[in-house]
Structures are given as structure tokens and as C-alpha cells.
Amino acid sequence: MDLQAIRTFCRAVEAGNLTAAAKALHITKSVASRRIQSLEDGLGVKLLARNTKGVTPTDEGALFYERGIRILDDVEDAAQAVKHTSDNLVGTLRFTAPRSFADLKLGSPLMAFARQHPGLKLEMNLTDERVDIIGGGFDLGLRIAPELSDTSLIARKICDIRHHVVASPAYLETHGTPKTPEDLKDHNCVFYSNVEAAKQWRFGTGSDARAVRVTGQVTSNSGLMQLAAAIEGVAIATLPDFFLEDAVRDGKVIKLFEDVPRAPSFLYALYPERRLLPLKVRLFIDFMADWFADPENHCEV
Q: Is the pTM for the entire model greater than 0.70?
């Protein structure tokens, strides 16, 4: 039985359509379709039901998927046994990560990991948009969030990400300094378009938690653009601490409401649930966790 056909079928089930499966496997949709048709012909059963929205497994297909994914895991386990050691990883590690965080914080650890494993190719998709890790064919993804709602993935917390409200001295001199979070309703704020409820900034924790609705002139999907709006005195911003190190140190922005605790976000490593985590994925996650556990490399300012 053709392992490539099994792999294509399993990817189609996970992605929900042939186009995404083909893209993840770096093949054309027609090749993916032929592989699955060949698999169905060989088994003598229909594995996928096709509709206008994509594909779903038939009852037989669902059963074959559960067995097929185990077969692929066993093959990878066997390959790891003869090819991979902790000192000599081979193959390709495909992962996705937030672009802004990667630009500011991931360059050094990624290159250090690459130097440790010269036989391993790193294929990274850096974007601040939410990425379908399974459908995109990624081994894992790094994601920043206060909590995770996607239960189809396994998550490991890498480090805390603190958020701060900041404004420039020029803005505060012109518009006054808000004394409490509730005073923000009278100020111009900048928003992050990739986050739901971005115009409600949350303060406090537990029973003291509260949301303050704010308004403003500028909305952007770039944290660096939000920081620019704050530095230039246009608006007040709330940003993760990894954006703020230089600007705070140089006095370009000032933190506000530091006496009011805010719930942190976290950097998570997310990966599909598998019986055995591939060695390359486990070592990469362990490396990142160790890197950011070092006080010199900490995410926080």
C-alpha cells in the first residue's frame, strides 16, 4: 500500500479539503486526487465524501484514518530510530509563528537551534494572522494568547507575555495623564485588528477584573505600527512587553497603570495530537522553553 497515498488521505481528512491537503504536501490538487482514488480503488471502498465545501470521511474512511495515522506514526518512529539522534536531526521542521514576535525575539534562538542541528531544515511561516496548523501541514505553531480555545491541538506553555498600557511624554503633556483605566474613555487609543474585542481593554484579575471600552483613530494589524502611534504622540497603546524594551528604556513611552494587575498572555507551542511526538518537534519545543526560561532571554521587560 502506497504510504504517500495514505499520507495524502490523512491530510485531506485533517484539512477538510483536497486543495489545502495538496498545498501542505507540496503537490497539485490533481495528484492528491489521483492518490486518494488509487487508495480507494485498492481497498474497494469509498473513503471520502466530496461536497461543495470540501471532503469528509465516510464511515469506512473514518476507520481507515484512525489506522492510517498510526501507520504513518510508526513509519516516522522507524525513521527516527535509524536517522535521528538528539545530536543529528534530519528532515524538515515546518512551523508557524507570529511575525512581530519572531522578528523581535526568535532570531537568536532559531539560529542557535539551526547551528545545533545542521542536518535539519527549518521552514517557517511568519505571520500575525491566525494559521490553521493542521490544515497548513505544519509540525507545530507558536501562538500568543491569554487562553486557547482550540482543543484539537496539544499546547505547551513556553513563557508569559505581559501587556502594558503606554503613552509618550508628549501625548501626556498635551492630553493629560489618565489616573485610572476608566479615564481612557476620554483618550485616543490605538487598536490591534487581529484580536477580537480589541476595543475593550481588560484590567484587574479575579473578582476585580473589569473591561474598559476605549475609542480611537487608528487600527492596525501591526504591533510596531501601534507602537509608532504611541511614540509619535498620536494615541495610547496597549502592547506586549516584547515590543517595549527599547522604547521604555529610551523614555519614548511611559507605562501607565502599573499598579493595576493585568492577566498575562502566554507563548504556546501547539502541535497536532499524536501517539508519539516526533523527536524534531519535541527537541525544538524543549529548546524554546529552555531558552526563554533563561533570565537573559526572558520575554518580559
A: yes
